[in-house]
Backbone:
């Protein structure tokens, strides 16, 4: 039987010359393919030496670094389940994820060791290591004593490889369980669909705790044996400087907006580029057009989710009638079956708007320890309900027109109003609140909180924001807060968020 371990497939794609540069960093370090192979073997051996149970979760909240990638690959290699956590998450958020996932190993930055280890040990985690972005920490110190030879653990396609937490529209975050087969099938499809070829060089400027940076970008380069120009943080000036050395770039729309503000972005800077990919949030048609004008390149927009990896893409190979169409997310990827249904479960004809549903080898295995929730999100015939609302036109192009889930996507990060409202409502003096997304020139969309005080009490908008900052990841903090006397309601008493969105839409546009 074949070993379907994702790491084994990525390793098999390493170039013959293992001494060639695999990753070049901002501080001019050069990691070879051999370095990746040896270091992932050492960390995998360290994990194996811990005698963890089958399916053990390795939860990781560390700054972006090549060593963090090595830890991810080593987790796959050793056959455990990787659980990446946004570095912006605060203690209450981390406490929930660790309590829910019950990881056997937690890896954090040394500056957070005190509070993270306390949470982890309380939740029963046996092993807490540190890993910093300057190649230090107890994880590497321990791994340094391990062998640099390791045979990738045998894994079946359906065995879990990662859990990505994605917030729920009601209640707490859900862990989307992705298997080796989910991710490998998607990586292979994208390699072909986006025409990856020898000599490609990727600029990697995204965070590595979400699908876009961790899977689409990283797997894309690795499965093509391609070098990465690694940026620990997105810096538009640096990206423009490095463009002539690269052929592929991937980003959320905010990255494109910020790059367009760089005077050095022009045809010349992009002379060796082959492909610009955008996704994770809607790309404005103005950004799409401005990019074409400034660089001569047409951004390829694609659409995906934590639960599904990539689902659709505009075409890479442009043919008559099959161009990259701005405002659309292209076609369902090979192997993905996509349909649009109404609320009664009827398939809708061309041009009609409804819920987007998908099926394919990339669709996740369900939500961690939430069988009921998982069941609700699938149709009887096995399609996953994305919660996105869209349509398919006569040429087959898919357009996302909205979301049935109450979700704000800000700079490519998801903010779930129900979660933020819950925190606001718990603050002293608050009777009720509503968080709505409004257009923002840089982040695409940002949250605005509208709050009413309890009778006879007063609350200050600034205090609400300050209180939230100590509890929530920074990107979830409302960019503006208003205290009002009443919220608009329909006849059923439900807050009419559309009216609030309309009222505040000009704040940051
Ligand atoms: C930072 N801030 C944000 C924010 N990022 N506010 C709203 N939305 C965001 N996304 C705020 C901080 O709170 C802070 O506010 C201020 O901006 C500066 O913080 P920073 O850390 O210096 O920001 P910066 O480095 O400029 O980050 C912006 C960014 C980053 C766009 C580079 O957000 C980013 O990397 N986004 C990409 C997210 C991503 O990879 N998504 C993929 C999800 S996968 P203050 O007030 O504290 O100063 C997915 C599936 C798919 O969706 O299809 O791909
Ligand atoms: P996440 O839960 O972070 O994986 O976010 C997934 C969501 O991002 C999807 O359900 C969509 O709502 C949104 N999304 C991803 N790509 C696009 C895109 N190209 N255009 C519009 N929305 C997108």
Residues:
């Amino acid at each position: 039987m074949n070993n379907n371990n994702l790491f084994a497939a990525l390793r098999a794609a390493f170039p013959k010359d293992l001494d060639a540069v695999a990753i070049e960093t901002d501080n001019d370090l050069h990691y070879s393919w051999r370095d990746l192979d040896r270091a992932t073997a050492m960390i995998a051996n360290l994990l194996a030496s811990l005698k963890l149970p089958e399916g053990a979760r390795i939860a990781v909240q560390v700054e972006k670094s090549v060593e963090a990638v090595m830890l991810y690959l080593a987790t796959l290699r050793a056959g455990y389940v990787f659980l990446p956590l946004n570095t912006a998450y605060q203690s209450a958020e981390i406490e929930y994820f660790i309590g829910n996932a019950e990881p056997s190993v937690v890896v954090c930055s040394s500056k957070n060791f005190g509070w993270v280890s306390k949470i982890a040990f309380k939740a029963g985690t046996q092993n807490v290591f540190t890993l910093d972005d300057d190649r230090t920490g107890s994880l590497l110190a321990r791994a340094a004593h391990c062998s640099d030879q390791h045979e990738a653990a045998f894994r079946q396609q359906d065995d879990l490889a990662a859990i990505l937490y994605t917030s729920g529209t009601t209640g707490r975050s859900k862990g989307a369980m992705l298997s080796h087969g989910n991710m490998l099938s998607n990586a292979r499809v994208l390699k072909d669909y986006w025409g990856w070829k020898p000599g490609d060089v990727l600029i990697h400027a995204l965070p590595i705790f979400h699908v876009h940076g961790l899977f689409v970008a990283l797997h894309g380069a690795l499965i093509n044996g391609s070098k990465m120009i690694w940026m620990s943080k997105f810096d538009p000036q640096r990206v423009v400087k490095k463009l002539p050395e690269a052929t592929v770039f991937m980003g959320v729309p905010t990255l494109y907006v910020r790059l367009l503000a760089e005077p050095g972005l022009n045809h010349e800077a992009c002379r060796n580029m082959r492909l610009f990919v955008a996704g994770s949030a809607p790309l404005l048609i103005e950004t799409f057009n401005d990019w074409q004008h400034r660089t001569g390149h047409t951004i390829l927009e694609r659409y995906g989710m934590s639960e599904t990896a990539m689902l659709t893409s505009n075409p890479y190979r442009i043919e008559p009638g099959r161009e990259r169409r701005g405002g659309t997310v292209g076609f369902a990827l090979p192997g993905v079956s996509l349909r649009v249904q109404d609320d009664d479960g009827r398939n809708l004809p061309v041009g009609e708007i409804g819920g987007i549903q998908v099926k394919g080898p990339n669709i996740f295995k369900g939500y961690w320890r939430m069988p009921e929730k998982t069941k609700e999100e699938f149709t009887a015939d096995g399609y996953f309900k994305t919660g996105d609302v869209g349509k398919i036109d006569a040429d087959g192009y898919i357009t996302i027109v909205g979301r049935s889930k109450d979700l704000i996507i800000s700079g490519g990060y998801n903010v779930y109003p129900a979660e933020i409202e819950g925190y606001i409502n718990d603050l002293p003096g608050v009777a009720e609140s509503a968080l709505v997304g409004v257009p923002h020139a840089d982040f695409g969309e940002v949250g605005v909180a509208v709050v009413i005080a309890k009778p006879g009490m007063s609350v200050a908008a600034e205090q609400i924001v300050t209180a939230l900052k100590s509890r929530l990841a920074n990107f979830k903090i409302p960019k503006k807060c208003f205290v009002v006397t009443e919220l608009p309601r329909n006849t059923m008493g439900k807050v009419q968020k559309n009216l609030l969105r309309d009222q505040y839409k000009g704040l940051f546009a």
The pocket of adenosine monophosphate (ligand 2) is lined by residues 166, 211, 279-282, 301, 303-306, 329, 386, 388, 400, 403, 409, 414 (CB under 6 Å). The mean pLDDT is 97. The chain has 15 helices and 24 strands. The chain has four domains: 1-155, 194-297, 300-405, 407-504.
